Amino acid sequence: MSTKQVRIAALAERFPQRAFTSLAHHIDAQWLKTAYLMTRRDGAVGIDGQTADDFASDFEANIQRLLEAAKSGRYRAPPVRRVHIPKGDGRATRPIGVPTFEDKVLQRAVVALLEPLYEHDFLECSYGFRPRRSAHQAIKTVWDELSRMGGGWVIDLDIKAFFDTIDHRHLRAFLQQRVKDGVILRLIGKWLKAGVLEAGQWQKGELGSPQGGVISPLLANVYLHYVLDEWFEQDVKPRLKSQAFEVRFADDAVLAFSNEADARKVLEVLPKRFARYGLTLHPTKTRLVRFRPRPGQRAETFDFLGFTHYWGKSRRGSLIIQRKTAKDRFSRGLIRIAHWCRHNRHRPLRDQHRELCRKVQGHAAYYGIRGNMRALQTFRFRVSWIWVKWLSRRSQKGHIPWDKACKLLDALPLTPVRIVQQC
Fold first, then answer.
1. Which residues, 6+ apart, have CB-to-CB distance to 145 below 8 Å?
2. CB-based contacts of 64: which residues, under 8 Å, 6+ apart?
3. Which of 19, 36, 237, 417 has a C-alpha 20 to 30 A away from that of 323?
4. Mind giving me the DSSP string for 169-226?
5. Number of helices and strands (H, E) in the chain?
6. Exposed / middle / buried, residue 119 (Cβ in 10 Å: 0-12, 13-18, 19+)
7. Are 85 and 155 in contact (CB under 8 A)?
8. Using CA atoms, how far apart are residues 303 and 287, in angstroms rounded to an integer?
9. Global pTM?
10. Residue 405: closest CA among 421, 417, 391
11. Is 313:320 a contact under the CB 8 Å cutoff?
12. Residues near 363 by Cβ (< 8 Å), separated by ≥ 6?
């Protein structure tokens, strides 16, 4: 599989303007088997209830049947099962689409086919859901570029319901600039039209690509590559008076400028650009931030990928850009911990302690970046007392004395937090 991907990548680099008409022949039984190994086995099941074990029970026959259906055009993409997960502070929810397991395998195979092709086209400013790229790299790039410019004016970009409003007509046009293989385009078209099943009601897929599908992040990157990245790099930057840069992770993006007039000009044009392709910028969340310190004035702050960026002082007293856990992410983490403690307080203490240590470690694995130690330690402290609070409610007394709580936390301390990401 990797040899074929290398070949596709080499052709994409050799012919940067060519639309490829023959790609589907790379997908064979072995390609699907590899896609199966890359698919999570413990994910939620789709509308048919099929699990990874069910698919593996007659593995060879299922692979062959899936391959023949995809190649012949007989494959029918089932609707995705829609579920809602908490968003932000826990009051709002985010709709997630859960495909069937067969759909996940086939989508994974198509992603593996298109990924090396589009990796040549995607720009350096794009970090989301790409091989060997991460959110921490995007955060580091923002820090490096803003530090180099000495701050500036930042457009904090927020696209309203992006995944739900992707225009299929424009998406097909973007795809056909590089892919004209009928089998691949037909499969993608079927996934886009499959619709969603929610509370027993089927909704036709006329717009959008449901979050949760394996193919959705790639399609989102293709869409925003043409709508935002390429436009900003080729059309906008040459017309600016001074420096500017963009960093995008999926549908989260920041545009930064060293000149205020440039920033305001781009902010005025952005809604028109996005409206042309059926997208809407969030009227209150999209904003221009003066991220440059002035004597006697505090610079504004902005959030990106769960971190609040702000100006602070180093140990030597000089102004530097610092990052800390964003308030909504900090609160959301504690709300989830409290929910878990409430529903698991009946379990043995050591089992609870082991699981809470894992949760604290998981939090620190993402938020453990340079300069964020205080927020990490505060999070660990708050988790300890949330645990004590819910342990107090295991009995009729309803309260654990202070000295007893301290003895418990001394005997079963949570894992110490540390800086993990040097970005």
1. 245, 247, 256
2. 29
3. 237
4. HHHHHHHTTTB--HHHHHHHHHHHHS-EEETTEEE--SB---TT-SSHHHHHHHHHII
5. 16, 11
6. middle
7. no
8. 11
9. 0.93
10. 391
11. yes
12. 333, 376, 379, 417
How many residues appear in the chain? 423
Per-residue pLDDT reduced to its tens digit, 280-317: 999 999 999 999 988 777 889 999 999 999 999 988 88
CA 311 vs. chain centroid, Å, equals: 26
Q: What does each C-alpha distance from 33 to 38, 66, 171, 219 come to in angstroms?
A: 9, 11, 29, 23
149: left (phi over 0), alpha (psi -120 to 50) or beta: alpha
Return the structure tokens found at 46. Answer: 């789709």
Residue 397 has what DSSP assignment?
S
Q: CA 206, CA 337: separation in Å to the nearest integer?
A: 38
Tell me the percentage of the chain whose pLDDT exceeds 90.
81
List, for residues 47-76, the tens digit of each pLDDT value: 999 999 999 999 999 999 999 999 999 999
**With contact defined as beta carbons under 8 Å apart, do 423 and 368 qualify?**
no
Radius of gyration of the chain (CA): 24
Q: Which residues contact 62 (CB under 8 A, 6 or more apart)?
A: 55, 102
Q: What are the tens digits of pLDDT across the range 120-178?
A: 999 999 999 999 999 999 999 999 999 999 999 999 999 999 999 999 999 999 999 99
User: Cα(348)–Cα(88) distance, rounded to whole angstroms?
Assistant: 31
Helix (H, G, I), strand (E, B) or coil at 353: helix
Q: Rounded CA gap, 256 and 76, in Å?
A: 44
Closest CA to 52 of 60, 62, 42: 42
Looking at 42-167, list the stretches that DSSP marks H as alpha helix, in order from N- to C-terminal side.
Answer: 52-57, 59-72, 101-121, 135-149, 162-165
Task: Tell me the two tokens of residue 375.
Answer: 């927020």
CB 137 within 8 A of CB 215: no
pLDDT tens digits, 348-365: 999 999 999 999 999 999
Q: Quick one: which of 273, 227, 218 has its CA closest to 250?
A: 218
> Which residue type, as a one-letter code, is found at position 224?
L
